[in-house]
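User: Protein folding is very new to me. Would you mind checking the protein record under this note? It all follows right here:
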Amino acid sequence: MNIKLIVLDVDGVLTDGKLYIGSDGEEYKSFNTQDGMGISLARYTGIKMAIITGRESAAVTKRASELNIDFVYQGIPDKLGVLEEIREKLAIDLDQICYIGDDINDLPIMKVIGFPCAPNDAVPIVKECVKYAADANGGEGAVREIIDHILSTQENYKELIEAYLAGSVRVIQ
């Protein structure tokens, strides 16, 4: 495996898929800090990170900024078109892309990239087309589990963790 880009859906992947909307219209989302640590570790190894989501949310903008996500696209109905744009910018092959999605709007990307993945609670038709289904649910560490799997196959994961513990890696949860 030679993953150079990990692309994330948001609702049902980085979050539990529930939408909390206040009386003021503000949307709230719950993110998992272990997922954040995984994203930071992946970025440290040189893997680029992207978010492509169909909804728009200030909470996603804030979280993506905290984690230094390389590419953030919100309110996107044609996720595959945006992925192609990112792929061309990075000059990478489809086989070098991991996409983590949970529902049918993620299928067009998942069918063409090299390493499609899903949280445990993804809809069945999505889980049928993935190469890796996490044991964890969306918003509950699925992203971290998938990133750990990728890093353990591409990197010396033990050395990466030792570098972090020695203080030479600054990551954000």
Remarks:
- The two ends are 25 Å apart (CA to CA).
- The chain has one domain: 5-165.
- The longest strand covers residues 48-52.
